Amino acid sequence: MWRDRDFGVFWGAQTLSVAGDSFALIAVPLLILNVTGSVAQMGLLTGVSGAASVVAGVFAGVLVDRFDRRTLLIVCDLVRLVLYALIPLAWMTGPHIWLLYVVLPLAEAVGMVFMVTYVTAVRNLVGEERVTDANGKLYATAAAAGILGPMLAGAVAGAFGLTAAIGINAVSFAVSAIGVYLIRIPRSTGGPAAPAVPERPWREILAGAVFLWRHPVLRVLTVLLSVFVFLTLGLTDLVIYRLKHDLGQSDSAVGVVLGIAAIGTVIGSLLVARLRRRVGFGPAWIGAQAVAGLAIVGAGFAGSVWGVAAIVALYLGCVSIAGICSMSLRQQVTPDHMLGRVTSAFWTIHFSMGPVGAAVLTWGAAHYGATPVFVLAGAGCLLIAVTALFTPVRGRYPENAAPDS
């Protein structure tokens, strides 16, 4: 894989792009909090953006399976470049909170199309045999970039303002587009062939969901992970609120904490391929979910900046292990001509409850404090892990399971 030129270019470009994304991850919530002083507004924006992502997910898979995947990646990057560049340009005349409610949902919708395309592109680049290893490498180096990114974002925000940090994120999409332009993304030649006559549009949209339902492991995973997203989509806002409101930390400190916490993602991503080979899918996925739940509970009681950073790092490490296992399994068992629609259907269902969850979590923190919300969310994640023990997810080799008739 190290000698694969196309994967290497793609790997490097996406790593730099993720480093840019971390600037917006820090800057946008802080921009809302500094202007409005409201954690509920942070949650509302997260919820609206998540809803736009869900709507886009309904159609993203059809686009990915119909059109050239390389072209789609480039177009998505260029559109997001323009959208994020609008924020610092508009802010030159003063705060425009309304603009965030326009730009962020549109950017998330385009981002959903990009991510569905990205998943299909990775398998086409490296093949089914190496997909877990490739996903681990991509996530590990992206997380490594995410360590430095939030720290630089905090420094840039402190020195030049939050909108400057968002401008850097806009530039990162240009880097990603250039990287994709320089590579080839072949279509897979293995697996069942696509039907000669295109299906009706509504059948195309539903085909991914039907495949998920018929596969005994993917069906359960989709349900459990949808609940997980409901409980966790607003956690970044919650961590920022705890650091700023409960512990009285600065914007720079928030960047440092999230940067250090990203070490957990690096470690989890580097371990996932070896862990899955050694213990199998089920033990790896369920164990990661259980430890993630415990970490969320712990975040509600951590009384220091370093304590929060360590616990969030543990949480992110577990999320990366579970997430890479889940994504790799879908890539392995789905025919190439359906991979876009299956990925799109999964993420549409997966994120459908997330926006509501983000709004509920931040509303709860505003009214009852962050600690009770952390405890409830963590307990819910533990319940997900326990439930999985009584389902086909517990199997070591679910990639061998055949879809139901």
TrEMBL record:
<dbReference type="Pfam" id="PF07690">
    <property type="entry name" value="MFS_1"/>
</dbReference>
<dbReference type="InterPro" id="IPR036259">
    <property type="entry name" value="MFS_trans_sf"/>
</dbReference>
<feature type="transmembrane region" description="Helical">
    <location>
        <begin position="166"/>
        <end position="183"/>
    </location>
</feature>
<feature type="transmembrane region" description="Helical">
    <location>
        <begin position="372"/>
        <end position="390"/>
    </location>
</feature>
<feature type="transmembrane region" description="Helical">
    <location>
        <begin position="279"/>
        <end position="299"/>
    </location>
</feature>
<keyword id="KW-1003">Cell membrane</keyword>
<keyword id="KW-0812">Transmembrane</keyword>
<feature type="transmembrane region" description="Helical">
    <location>
        <begin position="345"/>
        <end position="366"/>
    </location>
</feature>
<dbReference type="InterPro" id="IPR020846">
    <property type="entry name" value="MFS_dom"/>
</dbReference>
<feature type="transmembrane region" description="Helical">
    <location>
        <begin position="7"/>
        <end position="32"/>
    </location>
</feature>
<feature type="transmembrane region" description="Helical">
    <location>
        <begin position="98"/>
        <end position="126"/>
    </location>
</feature>
<feature type="transmembrane region" description="Helical">
    <location>
        <begin position="253"/>
        <end position="272"/>
    </location>
</feature>
<keyword id="KW-0472">Membrane</keyword>
<feature type="domain" description="Major facilitator superfamily (MFS) profile">
    <location>
        <begin position="1"/>
        <end position="396"/>
    </location>
</feature>
<feature type="transmembrane region" description="Helical">
    <location>
        <begin position="305"/>
        <end position="325"/>
    </location>
</feature>
<keyword id="KW-1133">Transmembrane helix</keyword>
<feature type="transmembrane region" description="Helical">
    <location>
        <begin position="44"/>
        <end position="64"/>
    </location>
</feature>
<protein>
    <submittedName>
        <fullName>MFS transporter</fullName>
    </submittedName>
</protein>
<feature type="transmembrane region" description="Helical">
    <location>
        <begin position="138"/>
        <end position="160"/>
    </location>
</feature>
<feature type="transmembrane region" description="Helical">
    <location>
        <begin position="220"/>
        <end position="241"/>
    </location>
</feature>
<dbReference type="InterPro" id="IPR011701">
    <property type="entry name" value="MFS"/>
</dbReference>
<feature type="transmembrane region" description="Helical">
    <location>
        <begin position="71"/>
        <end position="92"/>
    </location>
</feature>
